[in-house]
Structure formats: C-alpha cells, structure tokens
Amino acid sequence: MKRFLILIIISIFCLFFTPMFLFAEANAKQRLEELQQIVDKNIGIVDKSMNLELLQDLGKKRLPKENVEAAQTVYEATEKILAEKNISEEFRIWTLKRKIFVLILLAYEEIPRYFPRLVAIIDELDGKKDFEILLREAEQHVLRIGSVLAVNPGVDRRVAIDLKSLADRMVLFAKENPGPQADILIEQLFSRISQIPQLNLRDKRIAIVAPIFIPYFIESNRKTVAQSLIADARRALLPGHPMLIAGFDLDGKPFNPALLKNKVVLIQFWGTWCSPCKEEIPDLIDLYEKYHSKGFEIIGINTAVKGDERAEKVKQFLAATTFGSKRKTIPWLVLHEGIAAAQNKNTVTKYYGINELPVLILIARNGTVLKLHPLPSTLDVEINTALNAIELTPEEQSMAETARQQQEAKIDQEIQEQLKLIEKK
After folding, report:
1. What range does the domain containing 289 cover?
2. Would the CA dihedral through 185, 190, 193, 197 be positive or negative?
3. What is the CATH number of the domain that holds 294?
C-alpha cells in the first residue's frame, strides 16, 4: 500500500511538472534564438558601416549614431546569451567573437564604460586559439587607445593608463606579432610623445618608455632608432645624475670642467637664429648678475646646427648684440658645438639628443642635475634654494665628487654597452 502511494505521488509530480520543465527549456531555447536574431541583425549594421580608419584620431571623429546604437544592442544581447547556463561551447565562442567585435567600436565611443571591458576580455581569452586573429586586432586598438590616454590624459581623465605597463604590453605584442603593424603602434606612441608641447612632461614620458623600448629596438636590429632613443634617454634620465659637459670655447680652447666645481650651474642650449633663446637671455643676465658672486654660473652651448653658426660668426654676434632694456651683452662662457663636430668628436648636443631650442638644465653644486627645463617663473627660487642648500664639509665634498665620478662612469659604461650591442646587430 505504501509503495502504491509513492508511485501515485511520483505519477502526479511527473504529470504536473514535466510539462513545466519542457516549457521552460523550450522558452529558454526560444529566448536564445531571439537573442541570436538580434545579434545577427545588428552586427550586419555595424559591419556594413564600421570604418575603423575613422577611429584613428581618438575623440575627434565619430561614427553614425545608428551604427553605435546597433553595436550597443549587440553587446547587450551577447551579455544575455553568455548569462545563460546551458549553451553549447560552439554558441559561446560565436557569441564572444561578436561581443569582442562590437567592443572595439564601443571602446572608442564610450571610453570609460567599454575600454576597460575590452581590455578585460582580451586578457581573459589570451592564448585561446579560437580567438587568436580577432584578439590580435582588438589588442591593436587597445594599444592605440591606451597610448592616447597615457600620453594625453586630458582626452578622458576617468580612465587611468600606466605608461610603463602600456609600453611593456606594446613590446610583448611586437614580439608576438613582428611586422609593420607593431612598428606603427610604437611609432604612433613616440609621435604623440614628441608632440607634447611642454618639454619637461615630454622628457618624463621618455624616461618611462626608453628603458623598455631600447632593448627591443636593439634586438630587432633597429640601430638608428635605438641610437636616437639612447640619446633621448640620456637627457630624460638626467635629474639626480651628473651631466657630462665638454667642448670648446669660441676661441677653440677646450673647456675645463673644474671651472664649475662646487657651483650651481645653468646650462643653456641656444642658437643665434633662435628667437625664444634670445627672448630669455635678458632674464638670465639678471639672474647671473644677482647670483654669480654667490656661486652661480651659466654656460651657453651654441648648437651650431642651423644657418651660418660658425664660431667666428657667433663671436661677432655676441660682441655686437645687446639684450633687454638695459642693453647688456652676454657675460658668461659660450661653448661652440661646431668645433667639436669638425674634429669628429661627439657633441654634448648630440649626446643628449637636443633637437629643439631653447633647453635649460639646472645643476646642483655636487654636479648632479636638479631640474630639466626649469620654468622661467620658478628659476629664481630654484637657483636661490640650490645656492643656500647646506654646504658639505671637505670630506663630504670629496665623497660626493667620488660618487659623482662613479655614477658618471657607470652611465657612460651602460651607454657604451648598449652601443656595442647595436654594432653587433
């Protein structure tokens, strides 16, 4: 009797609930089919009018509204499909591919919302063969958008990009996908860095990427690019390190570095043709007269890279030219790069990659660089602070000088090793 009752209960359960399960399964199948139709319909709209070349200039060119809305519709539909528990692996891959495709577009259109999602899905699927080609394309867009955000955060400050991590990711992509595509991405990054108008910000970014890209350029036998970046790195990494100052004065006499010992020094790279250089000279003359007796020195380095900048012509220019309302001549020592270049010697300008003028570099009493590209508005305060820094005892000065020389030798050795690697390639 007991067994009979159990059978009746089971029969009743099956009678009432089996149709419900079947209905739920049929309903889920219908829902997935509808979502698939939504994806198919809208992906066609996206694919038909989506021109990724328009996306090169982030934030400047927009795609048609209907195109973006179609991409958003596809994205939302794929999210719903992937949330379903019982979908086949084939259908999951189909859905993910379409999700990645529209995320590429949406990452340009709504950076804060979709760009991190594109990065996350690329990292999640990294190494999966089913997505290899699509992920390679998506990664290029991530690197392109990331380079804009990292170099110019003003495009969208809601998304923070670490430039070092981006450069590491870019090198990894280049090694895994050698060819022009990776080279273009790296060139675009450098182009954006070189277009930063503030020299100090530009050099800060070069200081971050140079140690990452130099080994890559050497390994890929890009000698010219590597040599140029090494020079940029020497300049960008100067703060806190000694600066090599060498050359000849306008009479052809070798410069004696001992003249700068225990002095605060301002280096000015300039040219007679450079209007901004000449505009800042009156203020520099005022600073020289104010602080020279207290241990402040200025060294001018004429780059001799444009026009008729022969030493004799520069000497005539200095003798005949006065500056400012008080009509004063330049009172400090001027070195001339053309003399060293004529003797086939490496110039300071070339050594530190000085490609535009004017460039100012402030050096502390111990010979280490205090500031690259100091602002004219703060230069007075910075010189005064450096001059009034706690003076070292003779023993401390000797130790600082030894440390400076060791650091100088270390930097030079590292540079020479990098150059040897280039030559071997």
Report:
1. 257-389
2. negative
3. 3.40.30.10
